Amino acid sequence: MSKRFVLTCLDRMITFLFIPRRLRGVAIIRVVLATTVLSNMLSHFREWGYLWGNNGVLPFATFHNFNQMRHSFSLYALSSNDKYEVFIFVLGILVSALFLVGWKTRITSVLFYVFTWSLYQRNPFVLDGGDNLLYLFAFFLMFVKSDRYLAVDSSPEVDSGSHLPAILHNFAVAAMVLQLMILYTSSGLAKATGHLWQNGTALYYVLQTDEFNMSHWSVILWKSTAVVTFFTYATILYQVSWPFLIWYRSTKLAMVSGAVLMHLSIAYFMGLTWFSIIMIGAEAVIFSDDDFVYYGRTLHMLKDHSHSYVSGVLRRLGSVPAIPGRPQSSIQETEV
Predict the structure, then answer these.
(1) DSSP letter (8 states) at residue 77
(2) How far apart are CA 21 and CA 77, in angstroms?
(3) Residue 244: pLDDT over 90
């Protein structure tokens, strides 16, 4: 291996790290996570006292002991005063809204993580599992440039002479992708070793669970042996293949489409809505900025071709002679 080859590789790697990657993807994740938290807080606002208050589901004394036992931190543990807790809750709504619109994300990203962690530690019994990925991605969002798109104060990159922010951004993005790879791989392998998943009946028992059976349409699925078997095995195959197929432009769109269908089904049939929204939003990180540009151009071309095709069909229809006794079509009148 020649010295020139090694230096060339190092130069390319350094150049790669010095340019922030997947800016559109992290902006989408910022919007999805902030929307999820904000929607949760607003939907619970009227039931605040019951869900998050000191005399609700989890009284302050129980929460404080539980928090100490887990060695965790929460802003809600600093005081048992009701007015203080309402103030923190409302302030969390404001922080989530500012982070959603992309205002001063260097500051609001940190505040968003602190307030979200504090809220979910206050009452973990209202969570559905999506909070685990939300915590991780909210932490990584503190190190990325999530304000380049979909942000009110979006501004072009300014060369400050330091490449540290870009390096931190790229490492945080890589950590997000790695986390998803671990999640899908471990979930798929865990299913593959389960008896019910191996014999193709796992989906049947999932849909039979009263806690998750949220739709009367589920009976159509679990009554069909072929449907249950197919989707049970398809889920395993999809999850274990996800980490390998997301690196190719020809397959990554199919993998994301599969994730959208799978998690929409989970949201509809099992009621895990917020979990599904977070999982779908997280898929945005696997697309590079070039991918977004490519898919955007493809959609634009398809739109132009569809418009041209429809226009041609309408012109041909307009050239057909009118049937006696029937008025001329509005198409002919428009073209005249």
Answers:
(1) G
(2) 38
(3) yes
